[in-house]
Amino acid sequence: MLLVLTVGCALTAGVIRCEYRKYLIPEQTYYIYSPGYPHNFTSAVQCRWIVTSPPGFVARVNCSQIVLDDSPSCSTDRLLISNQGDPLLMMANPYCGRRSVTEVSIGRRMAISLISTRNTPGGRVLCEATPEKENIFHRSSLAELGFQPWIQS
């Protein structure tokens, strides 16, 4: 049984809020984009996307267009990506400014959030999410981060 659930956007107290959940299907692309895309959003935004790949797959998210305010520590407008799939985005990577980025999930799920403040200069985001076959020989691991517990110093 295939379940695809998508919930839309709402405007509450001057903030655009959206929540989307998508089950990714092999060889299909799911687009993630800011409200009003291809135009810039011009008000506060709080949107979240949760994408889940089928068993044996990981999620790849390629954001080809990130056009956001470039503030110190991405404190105003930011795109948050959790490659661990954490819906609370506690350990998510923050992105802002003008750039592109690609992230691959550690498990089957990835969480993405676009957050902007009320006094935002506006911006836009375009990403593509696709499932790709999990490569068990190239998983993110502590060894790739430089920690090698089998080597004693």
UniProtKB/TrEMBL annotation:
Q: Which Pfam families match?
A: CUB
Which parts of the sequence belong to the CUB domain? 18-153
Q: Which UniProt keywords apply?
A: Disulfide bond, Signal
Q: Which domain of life is it from?
A: Eukaryota
Query: Is Nuclease one of the keywords?
Result: no
**Signal peptide bounds:** 1-17
Protein name from the UniProt record: CUB domain-containing protein
